[in-house]
Prior knowledge:
Blueprint: H1 4-17, H2 24-32, H3 36-44, H4 48-57, H5 66-69, E1 80-86, E2 93-99, E3 110-115, H6 119-122, E4 127-132, E5 137-141, H7 164-167, E6 171-177, E7 182-189, E8 192-202
Antiparallel strand pairs: 1-2, 1-8, 2-3, 3-4, 4-5, 5-6, 6-7, 7-8
Helix pairs in contact: 1-2, 1-3
Amino acid sequence: MPSSEGETAASELRGQLRERPLKPNAIAELLDGLSHEQRVTACRLLGRSEQRNLYEAVEAFKPLSIEDLVPRSVADFTTVRHFGKNTLPAFTHFEKRFCRPRQAAEKPELYGFNFQTMAPVTGPGYFVARDDSDRREVLVDYCCVPDEHPADWPPIRSNEKGLARFVYGFMVDTLRGVSQHVTIGSAARRGKDLGSWFVLCREA
């Protein structure tokens, strides 16, 4: 159950997301001042319209790169968890887990997969994340899967076979920076926006 402090933080965040115009600096300041647990609770209580508004408000606000998702201080092939909430009808809580590949200097990218309830059915949803340097955002590409993974990650599966095709097939997510730990994403399939968003909170 969410803590009272987390619920209070969520109420403050949702209040800021109802303001017009939205103030990305104030939102980032609020999130940066919370504990990890409070940030996760606040993010996971955001609804569809709030996530959509946040995604639109932070366009070009905070430059984002793969180093924000897996900081340089983290060793290669070490998992970094991002706790998420999506706008799908069910199973809305999930995680994206990232790592920097071995010999990362030769591969300016991250490996990752989705940790969520339906993974045994849909597959782990492996992806490769890269910088979009033109827009200063990060692209999460499900059309590409890693060629290796940490030992405690699930086996790599294609996103273009079985039920995975309908969940992850031909998809590329766009991530935008919100605060030091929080990002907001939008999903697209074959280049067409799906009207689906998700918020992520990196572990402290």
